[in-house]
């Protein structure tokens, strides 16, 4: 009915330009809502509806319900025997929502289940491998935020090469989490029940923001974005830190909090701020905005320069300058990909712990394996197995 009304009204607009403007306005008013439907259905199963999520987690076929099934569901991080070591774990979150679907049935056959199989991009695998390579005494936990299946080790089907690459490191663990169980018993449980998170205009980004603070509250340790490359060990860096992205904002792509004491208090403050200041219409308000506001309260200033120069002011909470994690700002993200800027970029990041390649902007720009770009050189040195398994392009 909503779509039929504009067509009727358009008949009375004889001027072609007016008709075009009219339809443009209709698209602006209705198009966003109409385009939401496909991913809203995915979100309903992956995150929003508890019962549908439980059903998706328990999908079975005769093969998967056998004593030795070819595919198995990733273990829940809260229920697995091997759990994250508090304060000694590096966490990554994969928050893409790949809804298990039923394939169209052939004539005379029942619908065939389509399982969400474990998958990573080469760049995600690189982030994980580089963390594992440089931090062998830390556990690396990759948490998938939707029901995710993997091939059984006894199956004739091999894991994808990128998965094999990261699992060759003994300190890498792959787990799934159920958003509702993960929040249960924490200060943010009741807020999640309210459903405000699911009305966000940037839902997947804000679920990622939600989870990073929740994970640090549960376990402490180090949180890293999936679009980083770790360049050196972070094992001996004292906990309770983040990094400045600019002279006005801290960033949430690299954070460390102790699992107890002051670090746990900071994590609790982040959860409170997330709830109190949540804005589903602002992309950065609930990620970098949270840690920026909390640090301003801890340090008693909004001046990032004062946070950097005087650690006592921040009661032991460390704010690293941009060179530590964000030496190349987002506006210059192409520097990681341009061969003519290779030496300049490598020199600029020589003292960094981590480089952040700004996937939001750079994800569509592939680089040929073996080409002379800074990102390629980082990958070749710091995630060699993932780089080799990437294929022709990284």
TrEMBL record:
The annotated topology with respect to the bilayer is: Single-pass type II membrane protein
Which GO molecular function annotation, any one, does this entry have?
alpha-1,4-N-acetylgalactosaminyltransferase activity
Q: Which residues cross the membrane?
A: 20-39
Where in or outside the cell? Answer: Golgi apparatus membrane
Q: What keywords does the record list, in alphabetical order?
A: Glycosyltransferase, Golgi apparatus, Membrane, Transferase, Transmembrane, Transmembrane helix
Q: Name one GO cellular component term.
A: Golgi membrane
The biological process GO terms on file are: glycosphingolipid biosynthetic process
Q: Which InterPro entries match?
A: A1-4-GlycosylTfrase_dom, Glycosyltransf_32, GlycoTrfase_DXD_sugar-bd_CS, Nucleotide-diphossugar_trans
The keyword Lyase belongs to this UniProt entry's keyword annotation? no
The Alpha 1,4-glycosyltransferase domain covers: 260-390
- What family, per the record? Belongs to the glycosyltransferase 32 family.
Its protein name is Alpha4GT1
Species this protein is from: Drosophila busckii
């Amino acid at each position: 009915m909503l779509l039929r009304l504009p067509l009727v009204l358009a008949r009375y607009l004889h001027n072609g330009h007016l008709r075009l403007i009219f339809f443009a306005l209709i698209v602006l008013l209705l198009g966003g809502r109409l385009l939401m439907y496909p991913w809203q259905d995915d979100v309903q199963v992956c995150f929003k509806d508890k019962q549908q999520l439980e059903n998706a987690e328990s999908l079975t076929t005769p093969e998967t319900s056998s004593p030795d099934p070819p595919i198995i569901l990733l273990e829940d991080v809260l229920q697995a025997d091997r759990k994250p070591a508090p304060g000694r774990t590096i966490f990554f979150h994969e928050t893409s929502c790949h809804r298990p679907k039923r394939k169209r049935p052939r004539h005379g056959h029942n619908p065939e289940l389509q399982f969400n199989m474990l998958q990573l991009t080469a760049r995600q695998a690189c982030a994980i491998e580089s963390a594992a390579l440089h931090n062998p005494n830390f556990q690396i936990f990759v948490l998938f935020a939707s029901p995710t299946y993997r091939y059984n080790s006894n199956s004739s089907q091999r894991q994808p090469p990128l998965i094999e690459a990261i699992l060759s490191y003994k300190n890498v663990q792959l787990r799934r989490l159920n958003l509702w169980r993960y929040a249960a018993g924490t200060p943010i449980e009741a807020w999640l029940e309210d459903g405000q998170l699911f009305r966000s205009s940037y839902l997947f980004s804000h679920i990622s923001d939600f989870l990073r603070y929740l994970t640090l509250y549960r376990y402490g340790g180090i949180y890293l974005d999936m679009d980083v490359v770790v360049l050196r060990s972070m094992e001996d860096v004292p906990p309770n830190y983040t990094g400045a992205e600019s002279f006005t904002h801290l960033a949430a792509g690299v954070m460390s909090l102790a699992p107890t004491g002051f670090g746990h208090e900071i994590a609790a403050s982040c959860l409170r701020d997330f709830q109190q200041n949540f804005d589903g219409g602002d992309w950065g308000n609930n990620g970098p905005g949270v840690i920026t506001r909390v640090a301003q309260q801890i340090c008693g200033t909004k001046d990032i320069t004062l946070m950097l120069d005087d650690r006592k002011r921040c009661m032991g909470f460390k704010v690293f300058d941009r060179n530590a994690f964000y030496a190349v700002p987002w506006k210059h993200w192409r520097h990681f990909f341009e061969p003519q800027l290779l030496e300049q970029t490598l020199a600029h990041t020589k003292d960094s712990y981590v480089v952040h390649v700004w996937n939001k902007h750079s994800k569509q720009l592939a680089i040929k394996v073996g080409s002379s770009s800074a990102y390629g050189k980082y990958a070749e040195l710091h995630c060699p197995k993932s780089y080799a398994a990437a294929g022709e392009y990284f």
